[in-house]
Amino acid sequence: MAFSFNATRSRSVWQGFSTQWWSGTPLSLFDNDEYASALKHSLELAAWTTVLATALGTVLALAVTRMRGVSKHPVNFILMIPIVTPELILAVGLYLSLTFITAWPFTLVHLGTAAQVVGQVTYTVGFVVVVIRGRLGVLGEGLEAAARDLGAGPVAALVFVLLRLLMPAVLVGAMISFAFSIDNFVITEYLASDSSTVSIPMYLYANARGGNTTPALNALATILVVMTLAVVALAGLLYRCATRRETGSSDISSTVALGA
């Protein structure tokens, strides 16, 4: 990260401070089409993956929690497969499925951005389900049942009571999805199509040892690190605020109950 501010092309010998590798020259980060394309594509993948994996993981967690009987076990098994499967095997399986299977719905997704999003969502949604199911286990079914007893309908109890209490877990799930997506290399590499679908990790891997590489590559890696840390820090701050309000509400309820 420090060498992204080096005054010369060297990435190993410090020779003064300069911002030329960030902006202002044809080889700088924000003035080079290849760097800008990788950065833009990584953010695009992270945005789609975060939204889709968080939404799908929340719905699946709620559905699995409400399942009864033997059908619950195979669903749990399927959701855990991406978590326990080595990422390389998962990437190869996804690649073969999308390139050799000609049946619907595999024909709807082609190698490129769409396939990369599908692959990253497949990999991350299990983690989101685990986090939200853990939160559901802590909350139990009493609060939703109490809302129903007080006159709320099924949808109102779900939206205004349960989902509000699940927001800290949903936030953590989104954070995990973003971190996995922005940093993912194996799945993204296997499901790429052309130069327009090259992400930051792919570009770093392909060019880190090149003889013509400049400290602008360090600047690109710095963007990756700072972005990830900023999202994690923001999510942690929001999670603390949410749980602090919840703890305060619990204390008030306990005090009222004791007074009664």
Give a quick summary of the entry.
It contains nine helices and no strands. By secondary structure, it is mainly alpha-helical. It has a single domain (32-259), classed as MetI-like fold, CATH 1.10.3720.
Task: Characterise this structure.
With 260 residues, the chain is an all-alpha fold. The chain has one domain (32-259): MetI-like fold, CATH 1.10.3720. 70% of the residues lie in helices and 0% in strands. The chain is built from 9 helices and no strands. The longest helix has 44 residues, at 216-259. Mean pLDDT is 83; it is low at 250-260.
The CATH first-level class comes to Mainly Alpha
End-to-end distance: 60 Å
What is the tally of beta strands? Answer: 0
Within the CATH hierarchy, at the fold level, what is the topology?
MetI-like fold
Topology:
Layout (H helix, E strand, L loop, with lengths): L32 H34 L5 H13 L2 H14 L12 H27 L2 H8 L4 H30 L2 H5 L9 H8 L8 H44 L1
Helix pairs in contact: 1-4, 1-6, 2-4, 4-6, 5-6, 6-9, 8-9
Jot down its keywords:
260 residues; mainly alpha; disordered C terminus; MetI-like fold; 0% strand
